Automatic annotation (TrEMBL):
Pfam families in the record: SOUL
Keywords of this entry: Signal
Domain of life: Eukaryota
Span of the signal peptide: 1-25
Organism field: Raphanus sativus
Protein family per UniProt: Belongs to the HEBP family.
Keyword Transmembrane helix: no
Protein's name according to its UniProt entry: Uncharacterized protein LOC108826908
InterPro entries in alphabetical order: Reg_factor_effector_dom_sf (IPR011256), SOUL_heme-bd (IPR006917)
Length: 234
């Protein structure tokens, strides 16, 4: 909360300094506009991201086909709050890439950091949150191991994606996920997602995944996405 307040003050200060030119403070995101190329996450122009091809651009969401990818993941973090669990998990991943691994290796930051959300099947209001960092291609064959993290190797997969901006909160993540779920209802994509959740497999069993592309100190042009992964029967 305090950090958020500090950020807010800082962004307010910056908007005073920069004036209301609408260049930096603007809430409209021209590079996120839906176009023939879909909504390419702009931070991926600067840092390495998993590669995908756009399969379909629908009303309010898109379908991507991701190449194989490798992730370093925390153990499931039990919490009632996505934001709290993500802060906890993010710091574990931050130390990992800054050399707290068995090879004392420093690894470049990538995007996105993803949080897989698995709500409890029982009466508990706690969910499992697993945070993961996308491993740069040059380390994918053999990412340095470390205590309390494990490797997730993903086959190629389809992902339904809904993008949103600003800072992720418990409320907006849940709302965006519910909206994506609603948009997919009755579609072939929706059916494939439901089936993949049931059959499970690495990265499929969670209800949804929140992908965050910006570091906490990046105030503007923040890109976040809700992901729902699925496979298509061959
Ligand atoms: C998919 O990943 C492989 C292995 O990392 C790479 O050689 C290939 O170029 C990638 N394909 C695309 C379309 O990005
Ligand atoms: C949450 O994680 C724990 C520990 O890994 C696991 O035993 C439990 O089944 C998970 N629950 C859900 C709903 O995924």
């Amino acid at each position: 909360m305090e950090a958020a307040l500090r950020l807010f003050k800082l962004s307010f200060l910056l908007s005073l300094i920069l004036g209301n030119s609408g260049v930096i403070g603007s809430r409209t995101l021209p590079d996120l506009a839906s176009g023939p190329g879909g909504k390419f996450p702009s931070p991926c122009n600067r840092i390495e991201c998993p590669t995908y091809e756009l399969v379909s651009s629908e009303n309010g969401y898109e379908i991507r086909r991701y190449n194989t990818s490798v992730w370093i993941s925390t153990e499931p973090i039990k919490d009632t709050s996505l934001v709290k669990a993500s802060r906890n998990g993010f710091s574990q991943l931050f130390y990992y890439i800054h050399g707290k691994n068995d090879k004392s290796q420093t690894i470049e930051m990538t995007a996105p950091v993803i949080t897989q959300v698995s709500p409890s099947d029982g009466p508990s209001s706690e969910s499992n949150f697993t945070l993961s960092y996308y491993v740069p291609r040059k380390y994918q064959a053999d990412p340095p191991p470390a205590k309390n993290v494990h490797v997730q190797r993903w086959d190629t997969r389809y992902v339904a994606v809904k993008q949103f901006d600003g800072y992720v909160s418990d409320d907006n993540a849940a709302k965006e996920a519910a909206e994506l779920e609603e948009s997919l209802k009755g579609t072939d994509w929706g059916k494939a997602i439901a089936k993949s959740r049931e059959t499970g497999g690495v990265g499929f069993s969670s209800a949804y995944t929140v992908a965050q592309y910006n570091a906490p100190y990046e105030l503007f042009f923040r890109v976040n996405e809700i992901w729902m992964s699925f496979q298509i029967d061959k």
